[in-house]
């Protein structure tokens, strides 16, 4: 059995992917046509050629612009369904997905439209292929805390269907501390909370996420390696990191997968998980990320199994369901 076959066979959860980052080029072109949205690219090839990014901001510019092809509930349904089916093919049994409503409501698409499409696809995927999923709403960190609260209030009619809240977007210059009151509110009301930190930003942002925001998982967290005391805290608490290796490569967070800190983080005793982030933009779904790391970092089968187990243990599903997934 090849390492790729072994990885494909492992049941796993995916905990860090953005629904808007999973629109494959054919669907992107189809949605642009269907909704008569003007785009800069005439063909799929031209679109794919634009997927070269200097850094996170260069990616975010294209990503937010790309969101314009999502207009109707059916569009949000189609992209969510396509992701969940594709993830199921990678033996993902459970997915906790990110969605950034502000990127849609700010251009006049109602939150109801967005959520109705996404929830319908989640229900269908569970019924059709058995994959369970949850939805985490992500506030954009370049916006104000007041806007995050606004998103929160708008989402309350669907509170029973929302797994939690997160923080994403342009990291440097927008520290977690900016959202301390927002996260306290989310936690007080019983939502799970996570935040992107230590992707381009420093270890101090990871520390703030854990200590000020009280996050249950850190999204990315690469920079943790720069702070030995922080590493010990993360290991002690078993705070999961949702690491995204191919994303880090595409956004020049690492110079190569060989130089990726994933194994060092595992060796420091952290609960590391592997995820795809924005699979259609970064050239790989979750298994591709596992395979790239196994090859480049020489991970043993035992280590690969540990990563897959971690993904289930770091998920927000109840323990009984975790046991089913393992
Ligand atoms: N939104 C989508 N992908 C992201 C990433 N890699 N970092 C921060 N925000 C994001
Ligand atoms: Zn992300």
Describe the structure.
The chain has 17 helices and 8 strands. Helix 1 packs across helix 15 (286-297) and helix 5 runs parallel beside helix 7. The protein has one domain (3-325): Metal-dependent hydrolases (TIM Barrel), CATH 3.20.20.140. The chain has helices at 3-9, 25-34, 44-49, 56-66, 73-89, 102-105, 111-129, 145-155, 180-188, 203-211, 228-237, 245-250, 262-267, 279-282, 286-297, 301-313, 319-325; strands at 12-14, 92-99, 132-140, 164-168, 192-197, 217-220, 241-243, 272-274. With 326 residues, the protein is an alpha/beta fold. Bound molecules: adenine (ADE) and zinc ion. Zinc ion (ZN) is lined by residues 16, 18, 168, 196, 219, 277. Zn(2+) binds at residues 16, 18, 196, 277. The record marks 220 as: Important for catalytic activity. The active site is at 199 (proton donor). Residues 11-326 form the Adenosine deaminase domain.
């Amino acid at each position: 059995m090849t390492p790729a076959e072994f990885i494909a066979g492992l049941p796993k959860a995916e905990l860090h992917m953005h629904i808007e980052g999973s629109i494959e080029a054919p669907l992107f072109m189809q949605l642009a046509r269907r909704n008569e949205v003007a785009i800069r690219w005439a063909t799929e090839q031209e679109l794919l050629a634009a997927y070269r990014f200097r850094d996170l901001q260069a990616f975010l510019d294209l990503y937010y612009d790309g969101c314009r092809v999502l207009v109707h509930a059916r569009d949000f349904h189609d992209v969510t369904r396509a992701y969940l089916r594709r993830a199921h093919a990678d033996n993902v049994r459970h997915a906790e997905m990110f969605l950034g409503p502000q990127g849609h409501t700010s251009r006049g698409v109602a939150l109801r439209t967005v959520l109705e499409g996404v929830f319908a696809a989640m229900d269908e995927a569970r019924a059709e292929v058995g994959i369970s999923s949850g939805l985490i709403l992500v506030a954009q960190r370049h916006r104000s805390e007041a806007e995050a609260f606004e998103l929160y209030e708008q989402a309350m009619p669907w509170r029973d269907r929302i797994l939690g809240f997160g923080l994403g977007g342009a990291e440097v210059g927008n520290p977690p501390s900016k959202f301390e009151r927002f996260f306290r509110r989310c936690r007080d009301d019983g939502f799970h909370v996570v935040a992107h930190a230590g992707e381009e930003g420093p270890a101090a942002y990871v520390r703030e996420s854990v200590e000020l925001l009280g996050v249950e998982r850190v999204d990315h967290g690469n920079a943790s390696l720069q702070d030995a005391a922080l590493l010990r805290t993360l290991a002690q608490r078993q705070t999961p990191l949702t690491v995204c290796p191919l994303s880090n490569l595409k956004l020049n967070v690492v110079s190569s997968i060989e130089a990726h800190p994933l194994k060092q983080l595992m060796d420091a005793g952290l609960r590391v998980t592997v995820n795809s982030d924005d699979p259609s933009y970064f050239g790989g779904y979750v298994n591709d990320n596992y395979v790239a790391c196994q090859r480049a970092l020489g991970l043993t089968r035992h280590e690969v199994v540990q990563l897959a187990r971690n993904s289930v243990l770091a998920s927000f599903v109840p323990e009984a369901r975790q046991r089913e997934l393992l």
